[in-house]
Amino acid sequence: MKITVKEALTHADIELEAEPEDYNGEQGLRIVFPDKDSFVMVEKNGEWQVVDEEDVNPELVAAVAQALKPHSRYNSL
């Protein structure tokens, strides 16, 4: 699934790919940047959290989590 978020520093639109991934038995999404760098997010208690990286910009994480909210609602039905 493609998602578009604002880049945290420049506020330019950036298109990311969100690919389903099993992360230690939990359903997550690998968020892939155009340059192929990536990180995994897992939804826990209704909040999306980065689980495999420590140095991801919190503003970017918040923007990705906001973009994933429709995905969360759809998958929880």
Poorly predicted residue ranges: none
- Oligomeric form: single chain
SS summary, helix count: 1
Question: What is the strand tally?
Answer: 5
Kindly report the spatial arrangement of strands forming the biggest sheet. Answer: 1-2-3-4-5
Polypeptide structure, described:
With 77 residues, this protein is an alpha+beta fold. Helices cover 25% and strands 44% of the residues. It has one domain. A five-stranded antiparallel β-sheet has the order 1-2-3-4-5, covered by helices on one side. The radius of gyration is 12 Å and the shape is globular. The model has no long low-confidence stretch (mean pLDDT 88).
Question: Keyphrases for this structure?
Answer:
single chain, 77 residues, alpha+beta, 5-stranded antiparallel sheet, 1 helix, 5 strands, 25% helix
Q: What is the fold's blueprint, element by element?
A:
Layout: E1 2-6, E2 13-23, E3 26-32, E4 38-44, E5 47-50, H1 58-76
Antiparallel strand pairs: 1-2, 2-3, 3-4, 4-5
